[in-house]
Structure formats: C-alpha cells, structure tokens
Q: What sequence folds into this?
C-alpha cells in the first residue's frame, strides 16, 4: 500500500512537466501532422485534401530554392562560426590583458535582441550610406551591394549571424579549453612540440565534444534562420536569401496556407534530423 | 496540485455583461483618441455600453484577428480592416451581412456614392464591410529642388518624370556613385509594398482598372506594361535609388530624393521633421503621356466590420453610424489626418474650415474623388505577392522584360486561382 502511495506521489510530481509536454509539444506536433493532409486558412473550417500538400511541395521550386539557400547559409555559417569562436577562445585562454573585458565584449551581441542587431547591420550594409561601403570607398575600393545583389545577400547575412552568435560559442570553447590538464602541454613542451602540434594533437582532440556541440547548435540554429532575412531583405533579391523557415512563415502567415506550411515544416524537421544524424556519425567516426 | 489549480484559475472565462459590445480600434494614439471620444459619448447616452480597446499587440493585426476568430474571442466591431482581406473573412462566414440591415445600403450610398458601394460588394452580392477611411497615394515633392530643375510641381507624366530624373539624379560628390535621385520605392519583395508603387500607378494609368475580374487575372494589359516599362527605366537609368528605405536618414528630407509616393500621414511627419526652409507640396502620381481623364490612385482603404459573434449587430451598426456621421468624419480628419471615405469632401461646408486652416490636406481631398481600393478576391495577398515577384525581377533587377514579367504573373495567377477553385 505504501509502495502504491509512493507511485501516485511520483506521478503527481512529474505531472506538471507531462501536462506541459502534452499541451505544448505533443499536441502541436500531432496537430501539425494532421494539418498536412488538410487545407486550412485558420478562419474557415478545415478541408481534407489528401496528399495534395505533399504533391504541391514536390513541384514547388521555391521550396527547393529555400532549401538550397539555407544549406548555402550553413556552408558559410558553420565553418566561420567554428573557426572564429575557437580562434578567439584560444587567444582569450592565454594570459592576455583585459581578457575579462574581451570575454564580455564578445558575448554582448548574444544578449542583444536579434531584431536590433539586424536593423543595425542593415544600416552598416546600406549601399549608398552604409558605413562599410564608406570605408571601402575611403580606401579606394568599389562599393558592394551587400543586400541588393543576388550573390552577396546570403553571405552578408551569414557574416552578421556569425558576429551575433560567436560570443556564445567562445564561452563554450573556453569552458572546454579550461578543462584540458596543463601537464599535457608541459609534457609536450618537454618533447619539443611546436604550438601547432600542441593545438593539433592535444587541444583539438580534447575539445572534440565541444566542437561536436558547437556544430550541432550552429546547424540547428542555422536551419532556423528567420529574423535576419525577414528584416533585412524580405527573402530577396530574387529570393536569394529566402530561407526555409522564412518561406514556411510566408506560407502560414502571409498566405494563410496552414496545411501547406505544416507540410513544409514537417519535411524540414525531418531534413534537420537527417543532417544532425549524419553530422553525429561523421564527427564520431573522425575523432 | 497547486499547478493544476493555477491552470484552472487561468482558464477563467471573461464573460462580458449582456448589454456590452466590444470594439477594437487600431493602436495608434490618434485613433485611440478618436475612438475614446465617440465611445464615451455613446456610453453616457445609451444602456448598451461599448467596451473599447486597441487591438491587442501581435506581429500584425491580421494575426491577432485570426487568433481571435479561432478562439471565438473576436470583438463585436473591428475598425481598421484592410479592404483586401474582407473577402476572405466574408467567404469564411465570420462577418455579418450588413446589406441585410434595414437602411444600411441607403446610408452608405448617401455617404460614399454608388461607385464605392459597387467596390465593396462581395462576389456573392452581399456587403460585409463599412467603408470608413482612406489615405490616397500621391507624390510629395521638394519645391526648392524641383524649381531648380525647371519644374513647378512634381512631374505629372512618365516622360516629364524621366526628364526630371535625368536632370536631378547625379553624383554630387564625384565619388563615382549617384547620391541624389528623383525618388525611390521600396525594393523589398513584400506584397503590400506593391500597393504603393506598381498598383497605385496601374490604377492611375488605367483610370481605376482591375487586377482580378470574375476570378481571372485582367492585369496583363497595356496599362500594366506602361507602368512596368516606366518603373524599369527609373531603376535602369539610376533615377531611383536601389536601396531599402530603412537604411540611413530620411533622404527626402535630406534633399537626396526630390519626390516620393506617399499618403496624407506624411503631412504631419514632414512638418515635424523637415529642416529649416524646407518647402514641400503634393501632386497626383505620374501617368502615361497619352493619359486622358482624371488621375486615379490607390486609396489604401481601411474599413469597419461586425463579426458574427456579435449578439446585437443592429446596436453595433447604430454605434458605427455615429463614427461615420459628418461629425465623426470631421473628427477623424482633424484627429488623425486620415480622410473619411465620403463623397464630395471638398464641397461639403462641414470640412471647409478645417481645409482652410490645413491647406496641405487639400490635394488629398481633391484626390479622394478618384481613388480605388482593391478587387474582391479571396487570394488578393497572393496575387499581389506574385506581382511583387515579377516586379522585383523586371523593375528592380532587370532580369525580365515588362512583357515577360506580365505574362509570367498572369500565368501564375491563373494557376493559383484555378487550383484554389478546384480544391474548394
């Protein structure tokens, strides 16, 4: 009897989370899946449409374009995020002056609102009056249409996103770096290892779990690219910065195609899962 | 247990008194003051109280309204509904059929005229919206700069606009880049931006023509072709700046743009922020050189609707009548600088004093006789979005000829409307 009472108590203790999970996670996921087989503009009753949304998706060139754009963004964003955050973390981990100040300074963009950062960078990127182009012309270079040319819009967004998030990954790498026992390096010094050899054979393998975490976080964060193109370019020019999430948003909240947006969302979630699984397998094999 | 009690207590249903009507207005201060004035006046004289609140904050008013429809928490009355959205709400059956109210049609006919009545009639032959206010799109121009290049006002035709562009657009600091332009429009590919450039110019060129008629696209015509050709030239020759408006300071006030296309909301803004000695005026937007007749423009109409959750639609209509009475319209104009959708505004003795003391509003009042809202199409946003895609490719980036852009837009809209019909 006492055992049974204990069980009820346990259920009661976990019930807030279970309730939260059922209402805010499980129900929306199942409802979204249900929606993929329906046509619904929110205010009219739902209509069963079979596989229409999936068929539409397969013939939708903007869906493919948005996927390619997102992958292009990731291709720039993940390596640059890794290189810059690791590089800066390694420098900050040495005994440099004002290291606390620099740590705080690099972290500052992380806590600033995404919209504020985006608007600020939009000003910097302005073709005619942007500060970056002014600097370029001051040193005799040509102006660049950062947000107004097809081939530059996505890289410009990736640069901005890297600047915004690099601080978070610097902190993660710093934590990783500080857990490496100092005697590893002392032994390497005795053996006459160069700085590069120490970095390659001690630092990198030791922070492998952090690298893995940064890659996964950057991938998932990068896949959810939305605010930056929404505010800066609206997905243009010529859909060159249309990310998958922005496209899903447009279908749902500009055109009220909730069923189609749910279909895109589901497909996209499966793709993210596949990419993350592949990354996991690759990184685990490599190190 | 505490959590469960908390959940249930949070689910308390806000039951309003039986005799109360809820009213959502837009959430800008001027309209809040306008609404508060009439709600207070009504509540002191009637037992059916109006409970007023600005529309709750959200990403957009449309999203908030949709959430309210789903949750069945719509207000009884909502003011500020974009005309292009009404058809979708009407087809969904969430709005009250207003033409069934005794005296409604005559009231609207008397206030707005036959053309407006026709414009707001849904494709099912009923009326679901009360035409309320408009913000006609016109050219604002920098008087000093235009005089310098030999123009007394904003150029009225495409040819003169291009000539003005040639004279005004230049590189003044010799850095190899143009830094003053005859004007600009948003280069962002967002559907509603096209209402203020392509669509306004299309209405002007076509004397108030349609985009969609009988569920078919009808915009692939000589007027749209002329508009796209004109706009494409402006960007190609760098007479318009290829930059988003959000970057940098206000280039019109800084003298870098000689004109821009805007509505009456611009009057108080320009007065407030203009530099010393800055003189400006308003003129109709440009039309093709061969254009004859009055110059139409986009009205940017915002209307009032009654949701079918309203238990007392007749009382709601009685209250709305006070908002759109002559007194209400004058109050709207004086408090918000937005024009009531009322015919013969200029001739009405009621508005004479206001116009006399606020002469900048006069061009907009004159223009209000020649405005059009949007066609009654359930998919108007998507139609505009398709046009915006083609506009961007043709006008801003010169990737398509105007004809190619129009053909592509027509084809895409045909597919859109055809698919929509077949699945419904």
A:
């Amino acid at each position: 009897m006492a055992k049974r009472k204990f069980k009820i108590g346990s259920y009661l203790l976990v019930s807030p989370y279970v309730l939260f999970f059922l209402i805010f996670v499980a129900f929306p996921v199942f409802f979204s899946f249900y929606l993929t087989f329906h046509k619904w503009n929110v205010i009219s009753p739902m209509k069963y449409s079979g596989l229409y949304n999936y068929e539409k998706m397969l013939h939708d060139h903007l869906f493919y374009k948005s996927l390619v754009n997102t992958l292009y963004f990731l291709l720039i964003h993940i390596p640059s995020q890794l290189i810059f955050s690791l590089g800066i973390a390694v420098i900050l981990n040495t005994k440099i002056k004002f290291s606390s100040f620099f740590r705080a300074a690099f972290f500052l963009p992380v806590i600033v609102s995404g919209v504020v950062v985006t608007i600020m960078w939009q000003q910097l990127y302005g073709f005619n009056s942007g500060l970056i182009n002014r600097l370029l012309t001051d040193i005799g270079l040509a102006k660049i249409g950062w947000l107004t040319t097809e081939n530059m819009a996505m890289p410009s967004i990736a640069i901005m996103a890297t600047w915004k998030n690099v601080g978070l990954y610097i902190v993660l790498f710093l934590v990783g770096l500080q857990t490496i026992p100092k005697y590893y390096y002392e032994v390497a010094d005795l053996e006459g290892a160069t700085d590069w050899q120490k970095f390659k054979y001690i630092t990198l393998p030791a922070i492998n779990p952090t690298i893995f975490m940064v890659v996964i976080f950057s991938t998932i964060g990068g896949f959810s690219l939305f605010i930056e193109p929404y505010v800066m370019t609206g997905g243009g020019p010529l859909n060159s910065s249309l990310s998958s999430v922005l496209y899903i948003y447009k279908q749902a909240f500009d055109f009220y195609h909730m069923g189609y947006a749910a279909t895109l969302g589901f497909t996209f979630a499966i793709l993210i899962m596949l990419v993350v699984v592949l990354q996991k397998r690759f990184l685990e094999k490599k190190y | 247990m505490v959590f469960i009690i908390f959940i249930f207590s949070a689910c308390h249903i806000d039951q309003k008194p039986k005799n109360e009507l809820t009213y959502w207005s837009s959430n800008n201060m001027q309209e809040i003051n306008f609404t508060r004035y009439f709600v207070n006046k009504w509540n002191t004289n009637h037992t059916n109280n109006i409970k007023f609140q600005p529309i709750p904050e959200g990403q957009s008013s449309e999203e908030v309204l949709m959430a309210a429809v789903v949750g069945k928490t719509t207000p009884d009355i909502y003011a500020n509904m974009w005309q292009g959205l009404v058809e979708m709400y009407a087809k969904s059956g969430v709005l009250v059929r207003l033409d069934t109210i005794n005296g409604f049609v005559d009231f609207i006919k008397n206030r707005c005229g036959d053309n407006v009545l026709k414009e707001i009639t849904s494709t099912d032959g009923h009326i679901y919206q009360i035409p309320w206010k408009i913000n006609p799109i016109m050219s604002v121009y920098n008087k000093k700069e235009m005089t310098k290049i030999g123009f007394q006002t904003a150029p009225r035709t495409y040819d003169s606009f291009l000539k003005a562009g040639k004279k005004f657009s230049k590189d003044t600091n010799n850095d190899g880049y143009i830094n003053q332009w005859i004007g600009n429009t948003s280069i962002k590919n967002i559907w509603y931006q096209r209402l203020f450039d392509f669509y306004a110019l299309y209405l002007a060129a076509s004397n108030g023509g349609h985009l969609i008629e009988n569920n078919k696209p009808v915009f692939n015509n000589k007027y749209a072709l002329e508009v796209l050709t004109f706009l494409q030239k402006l960007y190609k020759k760098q007479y318009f700046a290829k930059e988003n408006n959000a970057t940098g300071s206000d280039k019109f006030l800084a003298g870098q743009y000689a004109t821009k296309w805007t509505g009456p909301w611009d009057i108080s803004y320009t007065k407030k922020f203009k530099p010393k000695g800055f003189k400006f005026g308003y003129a109709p937007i440009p039309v093709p050189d061969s254009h004859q007749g009055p110059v139409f423009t986009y009205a940017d109409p915002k209307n009032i609707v009654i949701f079918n959750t309203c238990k007392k639609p007749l009382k709601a209509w009685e209250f709305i009548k006070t908002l759109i009475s002559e007194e209400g319209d004058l109050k709207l104009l004086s408090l918000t600088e937005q024009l009531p959708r009322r015919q013969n505004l200029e001739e009405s003795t009621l508005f004479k004093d206001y116009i006399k003391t606020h002469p900048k509003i006069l061009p907009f009042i004159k223009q209000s006789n020649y405005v059009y809202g949007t066609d009654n199409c359930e998919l108007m946003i998507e139609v505009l979005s398709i046009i915006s895609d083609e506009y961007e490719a043709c006008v801003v980036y010169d990737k398509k000829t105007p004809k190619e852009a129009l053909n592509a837009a027509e084809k895409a809209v045909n597919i859109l409307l055809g698919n929509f019909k077949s699945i419904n």
